[in-house]
Amino acid sequence: MATKRIAWCLWLILLMPSMAFSAERRVGAYYCTVKFAGGIAYNNTLVQWEGTIFRPEGNFVMKLAGTTDRDEYDVTITDEGEQTTRSSCLADAKPPSIDQFAFMSCSRANEIYEYKFNFDNTRFIRIYKAGYTNGVDNNTDTPAISGGFCTKIQ
Description:
The chain is mainly beta. The chain has one domain (25-152): Lipocalin (Beta Barrel). The chain has one helix and nine strands. Strands 1, 2, 3, 4, 5, 6, 7, 8 and 9 form a nine-stranded antiparallel sheet that branches. Strand 6 and strand 7 (113-118) form a beta hairpin. The longest helix is centred in the N-terminal third of the chain and has 22 residues, at 2-23. The chain is elongated, with a radius of gyration of 20 Å. The chain starts with a helix and ends with a strand.
């Protein structure tokens, strides 16, 4: 009988950290500022694609709303300068969740954009996967990776 009580208490203690983590909701709005950007661009002089550094741009607002499932969020991302256009950010065609390491990953616009957020250190990475593979050799659509920080504003 005492062994069962000890086992029960140990199980409860081990369960508490995960219960505490899942109770922490990160509902709200975040302003995300791009601090760096790079990718590939077409060099007309050399007639080839090459790695390059881009001017950091493309700040956005990310909004997280709770769903009926406590571990999932409805996530919308609105690019700076857009008034009403919002894209849902999904993970495997469903609302994303934040894991035990405070990471959330999602994609939008038919998986052209991929995002990874860390809510502990407020960093993010965004990957734009379009361009280049379409076979057009110009700089109207260049793949890029950018990153920066998000600040909770609401």
